[in-house]
Amino acid sequence: MMTAKEIEGIQTAFYETFSTSQGQVVLDYLVKGYLNRTSFVPNDPYSTAFHEGQRDIVRAIYEKVEQAKSPTQYEEFYE
Fold this sequence. Notes:
This protein is mainly α.
């Protein structure tokens, strides 16, 4: 289990990485290419699972950046 200080450090690192102009370009690319698309592949549960894994990583990155912007909004998730 991470301490509150460790969680804050991770959130800050994500925010500082993805709040730069280059970081925003990368985050936008990831969101458009992996998060904002369907992961479902008809008749292929393995590809569906693979694509869902890709989406989940991008979702986690995006969520960490948002949490760093408003840390008190997300405190209950870590208590």
